[in-house]
């Protein structure tokens, strides 16, 4: 399966997955034009749409795509996503014939209460729950929910390619460096990201193993993040530490 990030809107990525026979899946199409252009350029046939949550920058292009392609739309149980044809939730499996693909559905609330992720074919399609070296804002969920969701993603196979939905990596890396300034893996990832962005290349997808080594939101129990919490007066449990970390990121302007 080929995995292609399609830049969209200000800083979104729409994920295009396709096989050698030209059968394609699109994930979180916030607008239709980049999808249509990629399908035409690559000679692909759209077969399915997967959605992770209801925000407009993830579903805004669905109606326009459906006007030209008769395909199923898989989405969480959330009435705010009108075009869905198949509602899926935690523990469900999405199985497609063209392209031949299988995805496990995971509930990952926090950014929104109904957010889901899809895991399969070597990729983790995580929407706005997990970013490279960061995580999504808590618009609807609680810190406990988001931490549980991130714990769940962090426990997945380390060789999965993380396909998140925004190019936030450089800024996230600068924040992560304030938490773990002595993390050699983080420094290496920052150098890689700087080189990619210098040439306007995507920093994604990224192996989950790299996120496990560099992302402070997946490292809440690491010695460095615990020490950061103590320096900032966080003496409570790991949820309190995560909440303080997320609150610090919310105001970070580095």
Describe the structure using short key phrases.
254 residues; alpha/beta; Metallo-beta-lactamase, Chain A; six-stranded mixed β-sheet; globular
Q: Cα-atom Rg, whole angstroms?
A: 18 Å
- In whole angstroms, how far apart are the ends? 37 Å
Shape: globular
**Strand portion, in percent?**
15-25%
N to C succession of SSEs: EEEHEHHEEEEEEEEHEHHEHHH
Count of strand segments: 14
The helical percent reads: 25-40%
Supply the CATH class. Answer: Alpha Beta
List low-pLDDT spans. Answer: none
Architecture overview:
The structure is a single chain. This protein is α/β, with parallel strands linked by helices and 254 residues long. The chain has a single domain (2-215), classed as Metallo-beta-lactamase, Chain A (4-Layer Sandwich), CATH 3.60.15.10. It is built from 9 helices and 14 strands. The chain has helices spanning 33-42, 56-59, 62-66, 143-154, 169-179, 184-198, 208-214, 223-231, 238-251; strands at 2-8, 12-18, 23-27, 45-50, 73-75, 86-87, 93-96, 101-107, 116-120, 123-127, 130-131, 134-135, 161-164, 206-207. The strands form 3 sheets. The chain has a 6-stranded mixed beta sheet, covered by helices on one side. It has a 6-stranded mixed beta sheet with strand order 7-8-9-10-13-14. Helix 5 (169-179) runs antiparallel to helix 6 (184-198). The longest helix is centred in the last third of the chain and has 15 residues, at 184-198. The protein is globular. It starts with a strand and ends with a helix. The mean pLDDT is 97.
């Amino acid at each position: 399966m080929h995995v292609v990030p399609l830049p969209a809107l200000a800083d979104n990525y729409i994920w295009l997955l396709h096989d050698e026979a030209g059968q394609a899946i699109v994930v979180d199409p916030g607008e239709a034009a980049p999808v249509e252009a990629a399908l035409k350029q690559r000679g692909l046939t759209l077969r399915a749409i997967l959605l992770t949550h209801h925000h407009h920058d993830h579903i805004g292009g669905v109606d326009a795509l459906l006007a030209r392609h008769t395909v199923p739309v898989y989405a969480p149980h959330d009435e705010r996503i009108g075009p869905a044809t198949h509602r899926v939730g935690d523990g469900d499996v999405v199985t497609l014939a063209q392209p031949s693909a299988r995805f496990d559905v995971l509930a990952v609330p926090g950014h929104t209460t109904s957010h889901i992720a899809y895991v399969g074919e070597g990729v983790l399609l995580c929407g706005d729950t997990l970013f490279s070296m960061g995580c999504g804002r808590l618009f609807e969920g609680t810190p406990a929910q988001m931490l549980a969701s991130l714990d769940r993603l962090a426990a997945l196979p380390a060789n999965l390619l993380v396909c998140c939905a925004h190019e936030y990596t450089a800024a996230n890396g600068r924040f992560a460096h304030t938490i773990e300034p002595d993390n050699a893996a983080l420094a290496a990832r920052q150098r890689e990201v700087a080189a990619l962005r210098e040439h306007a290349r995507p920093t994604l997808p990224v192996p989950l193993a790299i996120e496990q080594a560099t992302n402070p939101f997946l490292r809440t129990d690491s010695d460095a993040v615990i020490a950061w919490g103590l320096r900032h007066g966080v003496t409570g449990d790991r949820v309190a530490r995560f909440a303080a970390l997320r609150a610090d990121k919310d105001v970070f302007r580095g």
